[in-house]
């Protein structure tokens, strides 16, 4: 199981948190970008993100919780440490247009779905996708409780991938700890994203290893 770590709810200051994740066993730094419109909170611009991670060694898995994700594709594509760029299905009238924009860059493309969004909505997009990010909390803040009712979506996505020979990875974001990671692993997820469980602890590697 791969592990991405989100830094937005931490017991440490931002710089310390980012350094601790960068030096940890995590596979990715999961970058939550919020615009105050798609979700209530707002945090960083692309320029902020560029500065914050310019000295990091790890690859970035960028989760855009923003309306008009198309506006940010060009700038993220210029950053050599971004591997995945993920938009929300619910954030754009024609997600396929944004997906195609990202596919014309060196970045891998992800699509995120809110807890209430059914997998059937994204089925026509799945052959173009490198990562499906299944939200297991309402997007917008860390420290919420994992919603077990999303587990069937992981199984559905795994079956669709197998039946069609697609290649996307299945990631799960929100409320991940050792117990809920076990559930999503059993359902067939390839990656978990964890925020507070890792960043509110002293030993990041111990927590990360307990999720694999
Ligand atoms: C939620 C974010 C998550 C969040 C995870 O909107 O997308 O990445 O930070 O935090 P925890 O693990 O605390 O739920
Ligand atoms: Zn996230």
Explain this structure to me?
By secondary structure, this protein is an alpha/beta fold. The chain has a single domain, classed as Aldolase class I (TIM Barrel), CATH 3.20.20.70. The chain is 30% helix and 22% strand. It has helices at residues 14-22, 46-52, 73-77, 95-103, 151-164, 178-187, 196-199, 204-209; strands at 2-6, 28-34, 59-65, 82-88, 108-113, 131-135, 169-173, 191-194. Strands 1-2-3-4-5-6-7-8 form an eight-stranded parallel barrel, surrounded by four helices. Helix 5 links the parallel strand 6 and strand 7. It starts with a strand and ends with a helix. The structure holds D-xylitol-5-phosphate (DX5) and zinc ion. The site of zinc ion has 6 residues, from strand 2.
């Amino acid at each position: 199981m791969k592990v991405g770590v989100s830094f937005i709810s931490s017991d440490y200051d931002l710089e310390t948190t980012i350094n601790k994740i960068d030096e940890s066993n995590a596979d990715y730094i999961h970058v939550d970008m919020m615009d105050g419109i798609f979700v209530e909170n707002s945090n960083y611009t692309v320029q902020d993100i560029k500065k914050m991670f310019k000295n990091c060694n790890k690859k970035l898995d960028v989760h855009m919780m923003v309306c008009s994700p198309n506006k940010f594709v060009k700038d993220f594509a210029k950053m050599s440490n971004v591997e995945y760029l993920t938009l929300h299905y619910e954030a754009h009238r024609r997600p396929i247009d944004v997906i195609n924009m990202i596919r014309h860059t060196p970045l891998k493309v992800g699509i995120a779905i809110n807890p209430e969004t059914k997998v059937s909505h994204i089925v026509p997009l799945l052959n173009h996708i490198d990562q499906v990010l299944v939200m297991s909390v309402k997007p917008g803040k860390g420290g919420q409780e994992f919603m077990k009712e999303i587990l069937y979506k992981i199984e559905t996505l795994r079956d669709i991938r197998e039946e069609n020979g697609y290649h996307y990875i299945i990631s799960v974001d929100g409320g991940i700890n050792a117990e809920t990671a076990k559930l999503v692993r059993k359902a067939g997820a390839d990656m978990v994203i964890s925020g507070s469980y890792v960043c509110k602890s002293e030993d990041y590697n111990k927590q990360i290893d307990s999720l694999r």
